């Protein structure tokens, strides 16, 4: 379960998705859908302030432009780096794609003796109930939690890297986000938080991906609002629309806070904690990605790729899928 006083406390508990059962219904649907093609063109953008890891496609580029006011369902392709983190078949957190094999999320989503094998990652997903044409499902190979997590603060160092067992196939609907470098300048930015969290103070939830635009809150002001400088550390940042009483209750813990820099989207925060929708006068607190960008780079560059599964014995792709579908059907009857 989520941390008792995290932003997630304002969200409702875990929900199944997409679909009511973990297997075989969603997996069957994914395998029956047309195979996603790697249709994304490698548009190399000019040198920007963001850090890119993928060599196949440019990070922070999306093919859906325009804006939707916070609280309204988002469109497919608008936030192609969004990830749904599932545990034991339930959506529990958000995350973001930063590389073919890597997801960025919050450490508290993976702590408390959770079993790595029980996690699933979904990309290309907008509706938790229905897999789309570009939805992909992944098992987790490894979770790396920052060594300072909970060391100097009850929720400090709240960042985690998730390595997938197989690589993500990029498309217009599934793309990586750039991450903020250590020297990023955060001023005059348009920033957005996304997720499947609460959409009202009453805790109503949505199965469709939500978005909200949030201005950044200066660190001294955020410390003042929370009552003590020690509550908000340098590895954190705050965002919230205090004037219009909007905060990131729309987002899930672990989800991205992204800003646009010269037509390139860069992730500056990971949803971490706060008082949620119930107390919108308090800004949401995010893990400051720039504080950890060198740690992220080190592990992505130095962690071995997972062992790949052996090729199927069948020479026909359709036959391989039929075998898997049959196996899943048998499992469902056990």
TrEMBL record:
Classification via InterPro entries: Peptidase_S1_PA, Peptidase_S1_PA_chymotrypsin, Peptidase_S1A, Trypsin_dom, TRYPSIN_HIS, TRYPSIN_SER
Kindly list the GO molecular function terms attached to this UniProt entry. Answer: serine-type endopeptidase activity
The leader peptide range reads: 1-38
| GO biological processes | proteolysis
Residue intervals of the Peptidase S1 domain: 68-301
Q: Which SUPFAM superfamilies match?
A: Trypsin-like serine proteases (SSF50494)
Keyword annotations for this protein, in alphabetical order, are: Disulfide bond, Hydrolase, Protease, Serine protease, Signal
Against CDD domains, the record matches this protein to:
Tryp_SPc (cd00190)
Q: What is its EC number?
A: 3.4.21.59
- Say yes or no: keyword DNA-binding present: no
Question: Which catalysed reactions does the entry list for this protein?
Answer: Preferential cleavage: Arg-|-Xaa, Lys-|-Xaa, but with more restricted specificity than trypsin
SMART domains in UniProt? Tryp_SPc
Question: Assembly and partners?
Answer: Homotetramer.
Q: What does this protein do?
A: Tryptase is the major neutral protease present in mast cells and is secreted upon the coupled activation-degranulation response of this cell type.
Protein name as annotated: tryptase
| Organism annotation | Neophocaena asiaeorientalis asiaeorientalis
- Gene from which the chain derives: PRSS38
């Amino acid at each position: 379960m989520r941390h008792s006083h995290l932003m997630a406390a304002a969200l409702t508990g875990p929900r199944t998705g997409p679909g009511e059962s973990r297997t075989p219904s969603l997996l069957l649907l994914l395998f029956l859908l047309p195979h996603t093609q790697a249709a994304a063109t490698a548009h190399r953008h000019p040198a920007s302030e963001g850090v890119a890891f993928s060599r196949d496609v440019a990070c922070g580029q999306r093919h859906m432009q325009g804006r939707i006011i916070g609280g309204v369902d988002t469109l497919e392709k608008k936030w192609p780096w969004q990830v749904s983190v599932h545990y034991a078949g339930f959506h529990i957190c958000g995350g973001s794609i930063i590389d073919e094999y890597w997801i960025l999320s919050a450490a508290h989503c993976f702590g408390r003796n959770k079993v790595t094998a029980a996690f699933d990652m979904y990309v290309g997903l907008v509706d938790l109930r229905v897999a789309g044409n570009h939805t992909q499902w992944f098992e987790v190979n490894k979770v790396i939690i920052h060594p300072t997590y909970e060391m100097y603060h009850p929720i400090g160092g709240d960042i985690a890297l998730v390595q997938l067992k197989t690589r993500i196939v990029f498309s217009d609907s599934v793309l990586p986000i750039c991450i903020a470098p250590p020297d990023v300048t955060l001023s005059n930015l348009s920033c957005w938080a996304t997720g499947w969290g609460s959409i009202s103070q009453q805790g109503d939830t949505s199965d469709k991906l939500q978005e909200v635009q949030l201005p950044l809150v200066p660190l001294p002001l955020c410390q003042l609002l929370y009552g003590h400088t020690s509550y908000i550390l340098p590895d954190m940042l705050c965002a919230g629309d205090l004037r219009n009483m909007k905060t990131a209750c729309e987002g899930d813990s672990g989800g991205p806070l992204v800003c646009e820099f010269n037509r390139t989207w860069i992730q500056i925060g990971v949803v971490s904690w706060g008082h949620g929708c119930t107390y919108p006068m308090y800004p949401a607190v995010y893990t400051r990605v720039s504080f950890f960008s060198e740690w992220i780079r080190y592990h992505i560059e130095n962690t071995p790729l997972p062992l790949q599964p052996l090729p199927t014995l069948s020479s026909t792709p359709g036959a391989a899928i039929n075998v898997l579908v049959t196996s899943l059907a048998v499992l469902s009857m056990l």
